[in-house]
Amino acid sequence: MAHRAHWQPLEYNALHGGFERWFDPLPSALMVDPAWSALLAALARTADGLRGPQPWFVEAHLFRIDTAGGIGRPTPEGAHRDGVDLVAVVLVDRQRVKGGETRVFDALGPHGVRFTLTEPGSALLLDDARVIHETTPIQPETAGGGGWRDTLVLTYRSGGFQGPAVPSAKPPEA
Fold first, then answer.
1. Which residues contact 85 (CB under 8 A, 6 or more apart)?
2. How confident is the model at residue 4 (pLDDT cuts 50, 70, 90)?
3. CA-CA distance, 45 to 22, in Å (whole number)?
4. Would you say 21 and 7 are in contact if contact means Cβ atoms under 8 Å apart?
């Protein structure tokens, strides 16, 4: 699929919802890597097992949250749902930071779990209809030090991509 804007309704993302968000395209080397195809297919099989076989509309985003400003905020919108069927969060790298606790709560009640993804390749798979999730801010491990947390977020949605009534054809000019 051609590069496209990410879009969420305000009901799922009060901070960044209701408008098109353009992210950099994924690296072309990733797109031809056999491990990439294997990961997407494995998660699609998991989605099929949970929701039944069907076409899945997948968005992929690489996020680097750094501590250049002192604090990095992985989920500035707070606890939220994404408006999809499944969300996979894969830790790619984590260097010289503390914090970044992931919190996953039952969407209908107060029960939840808290943990920190620390090992590259660690993954979390969320049933977006059943839970809300967030990640706490990160800080440098040492005063004045810099650090980062890199994640790959994959969303699987049945029935089509989320989007505005009339999507843009390309990113806005800088």
1. 47, 50, 51, 56, 127, 128, 129, 156, 157, 158
2. confident
3. 28
4. yes
Pick the CATH number of 28-157 from 2.60.120.620, 3.30.230.10, 1.10.10.60, 3.40.50.720: 2.60.120.620
Q: Specify the 3-state DSSP secondary structure of 30.
A: helix
Q: What global pTM score does this model have?
A: 0.90
Reported as a single tens digit per residue, the pLDDT across 89-109 is 999 999 999 999 999 999 998
For 23, 71, 94, 146, the CA distances from 27, given in Å and listed in that order, are 12, 27, 20, 24
- How many residues comprise the chain? 174
